[in-house]
Amino acid sequence: MSKLTTSKDVLLYIPNLIGYTRVIASLLTFALMIFSPDQWSLAIASYIYSFAADLFDGMAARKFNQCSSFGGMLDMVTDRCSTLGLLFILYGEYGNTDREYFAFYRITFLLLAVLDISSHWCQMYSTASLQIHHKSSEGNANRFFLVRWYYQCYPFFGYCCVSAEVTYITMYILNHLEEGDPLLTIGSNILKLVIPGCVTKQIVNVFQLTTSCNAVAEYDAKNANKKS
């Protein structure tokens, strides 16, 4: 008789251990950004590790056959909280009263945070309630075509996610460079390349939010019709 898997075993799965390092890296990132802003390069390196390690925990889950609902939840929470934390930092740095268009920056970063959290939470809820993975073809069968592409076409998914994160990271770096620094030109050129992908990601988020809400409403309607 094979040994039964316990909750402790799941918590100690290799991909989940990698996930914990991502959480630590994100916390380190924000601690450095807030308390030691002069260490911005180290903060960015820590953030990039947290973002990139998401790829490796997925690879480990498949390699060691250690996929788990807890791992999926850990990934989702880490991704969303990391992005939210960076947007919070950018809100503070670009939304101060000494900067031109500060109100625009405040509103933009606030709306980006709200959209990111709400769209992904609704997506997760709408599929989890049916015990379907939020990235699966089955879970997104009746969603808007951009949402289906986002979760089924890995290059498109990667383009949108990487573009959004690189946009936020680059904006943070640019805010810490001195005027005349040659990296300013490089950073500006990078933004020109990734902002279209970042905008596409927000469009996907809008449709992810609306279609997932509609999916939950359809589920409620079916249950109501069964009762009647």
Structure in words:
- The chain is mostly helical.
- It has a single domain (7-227), classed as Up-down Bundle (Four Helix Bundle (Hemerythrin (Met), subunit A)).
- It has 8 helices and no strands.
- The protein has helices at residues 7-11, 14-35, 40-63, 69-94, 102-128, 145-152, 154-174, 182-227.
- The longest helix is centred in the last third of the chain and has 46 residues, at 182-227.
- The protein starts with 6 loop residues before the first helix and ends with a helix.
- The model has no long low-confidence stretch (mean pLDDT 92).
- One of its GO terms (molecular function) is metal ion binding.
- It is found in: Membrane.
- It is a multi-pass membrane protein.
Rg result: 20 Å
User: Which percent band covers the strand fraction?
Assistant: under 5%
CA distance, first residue to last residue: 47 Å
Which structural class is indicated by helix and strand composition?
A: mainly alpha
Q: SSE string, helix = H, strand = E?
A: HHHHHHHH
For the record, the count of structural domains works out to 1
Give the overall average pLDDT. Answer: 92
Assigned CATH architecture: Up-down Bundle
Briefly note the CATH topology name. Four Helix Bundle (Hemerythrin (Met), subunit A)
Q: What top-tier CATH class fits best? A: Mainly Alpha
By oligomeric state, this entry counts as single chain
Number of helices: 8
What does the main sheet amount to?
none
Q: Give the low-pLDDT segments.
A: none
Q: What is the number of E strands?
A: 0
Relative helix content: over 70%
